[in-house]
Amino acid sequence: MEKGRVTIPSESNFLAETKRLMALWGADAIRDSDGTKLDEELKQIGAKIYTTYFVARGHNDFAQKHLEEVQQAFLLSERVCATEDEPKIWFMKGYLEEQLQPNYREDPKELWEVYDRTTGEKLANEDWEVDQKQNVVSLKKWQPYHEYTVSFLASMIWDPTQMYNHITNDWGDKPHEIPFDIRQPESKAFVRNFLTNWLADNPDTDVVRFTTFFYHFTLFFNDQKKEKFVDWFGYGSTVSVRALKEFEQAYGYKLHAEDFVDEGYYNSPFRVPSQAFLDYIDFIQRFVANEAKKLVEIVHDAKREAMMFLGDNWIGTEPYGPYFKEIGLDAVVGSVGNGTTLRMISEIPHVKYTEGRFLPYFFPDVFYEGNDPTIEAKENWLTARRAILRKPVDRIGYGGYLSLANKFPEFVDYVSSVTAEFRDLYERIADVKPYVGIKVGILNSWGKLRSWQTHMVAHALWYQQIYSYLGVLESLSGQKIAVEFLNFADIKAGVPGDIDVLINVGDAGTAFSGGKNWQDTQLIATLTKWVANGGGLIGIGEPTAHLANGRFFQLAHILGVDKELGFSLSTDKYFKDEVSAHFITDKATQVEFGEMQKNIYALSEETQILRYLDGSVQLATHDFSKGRGVYFSGMPYSPENAQIFLRAIYYAAHKEEELNIWYAENPDVEVHAYPEKRQYAVVNNTDEKQVSKIYTDKKNYVITLAPGAIEWRNYDE
Q1: Does this entry carry the keyword Glycosyltransferase (predicted)?
Q2: I need a labelling partner for 608 at 20 to 30 A (CA). Which of 123, 192, 427, 670 fits?
Q3: What pLDDT, in 10s, does the model give residues 628-651?
Q4: 113 in a domain, yes or no?
Q5: Which of the residues are catalytic?
Q6: At what angle do helices 185-201 and 275-301 cross, to 10 degrees?
Q7: 633 and 700, same domain (yes or no)
Q8: Which residues, other chains included, contact 313 with Cβ-Cβ below 8 Å and sequence gap of 6+?
Q9: What's the domain count of the chain?
């Protein structure tokens, strides 16, 4: 194919240049972006037209008439340490009043909560008062030198994404878009009627790109217009009095402000979720699916396609959740930051096609004089391509201002090569299952609901505390491994029969390591039996961690290591010697452990220590009856780490002899085989020339690959 499967942005008064870039990139669709519009000439050039559609923002004429229906959230004030003087809590301190305002339409005494954070106790309503003119709570009864907070209901009067784009692009006096809540009666009627009329007024639109539906992920800004709190999975902006009442009717109990502010953590995905929060997620998902379905039906009745952007107002859609299928969407498009996010999009079920929006976004923070956006584009493509070769999205595209990209000829040429290569890959492998050697299960508190979404804070952005764990999924995203995401309830009665290796990753106490789930003795016994009968367990960071019964790692007896917390310093730790050679680290020049863990020690001489650094075990293996345990202190992504991790998976599964089937010795090179087509691809994942020994299912040979090259071969060559 020389054309197709590519969507590019455009803008007004950019017709000739759009035509040129469409031809160069082989694009068959054009789209607008936040801040751009397509003029009539652009809509008539024969391309499929995507139009960005905002359901619950971008309609200020309506929103300003119904400010009682704006979206809301529970917020937590800063902590104030009480002295002998009457304490006052200026609860809006640190928040941006352009975005958030206290909601005094509802009685604060009915919804707000004041907590003694030193004791964890809620104050009685008569023990505090609100000054609505000054936004301050005065305490009438308090304990000196205890800390206090106010949990208050706030109205959201500026959409967070539009605010971000507003600041980034310096939109000046452009109106602040007010988000409104479609759970409210006027808003619910408005969105349906407006969409019906909008479709009639936009006959040239082929694809309605919902961006997204109703509720934005939790994103609050501080008084300096910087991000204060961002959780790409956050349900904080879905709150209303109506929602709270309907929840109580459906579930039989009442939610409170503390259920949302969660001591200031706002139920981040790193928190082991409470049952109340899980119930609330389910409640919102059912509502969103039901209402989104009605809008999609309106689109379909107008003979258009309905596409959802996996971002912005995506909360409640949960593509891997139980209600997503009911929405009836034609497509999902999402931003591709790496291989993990590519798989997050490409694996989404119940849609006709998926689309990845590649980076960089055509915004002035990247496309400015003196910068080379091609560097980011190459890294983005080569990183995501590994995942595409396992499970491709159906389309790719870009967003932003096409006029900015047009000023960088080298970037324009590189995108041309990317789009051509993508079409070639898709034509070869779109409906073909790649070779898989082993199946692993990722075990955490979220399971299937958050498939390919673990250890994210703001959708693939780098954080010091998580890169050592996110590397697990990044490695797996482009490897010959089948991946299933499991929660603790999924395995309590037994590990699924097709799982070869279970992987538990994360810091102690987090949802990803498991926290209080490891109090369950039945769970421990079930997994112990499974490994004893031949299963493999890989733990990374502080796996199975919960201090109880003389152990911190509750499956230390399988992993062969535990963590010293200071309680057993009087017990000598003699086992520190590394083994001279091991299958996992064979030919490895360097293993990166990221932030590493300290004070990890081997339990006995039966533990094989592969790396011992700074007085702590960083990599070890341990045989347990017929099964095996493997421990890593961290697993940031790098090509060499990915290869070591792959070897660890095969070792844990007792399948070492099968590793050299569709395998490359050079970690910068990978092999992807497609048995149905009797073809395989040898891929250089770097921008430099690479040489590697290659193993097929029958033979081995040495190959030299140009920078970024893919060489396709038949099985029988």
Answers
A1: yes
A2: 670
A3: 999 999 999 999 999 999 999 999
A4: no
A5: 312
A6: 30
A7: no
A8: 54, 55, 56, 57, 161, 179, 211, 212, 213, 214, 215, 216, 217
A9: 3
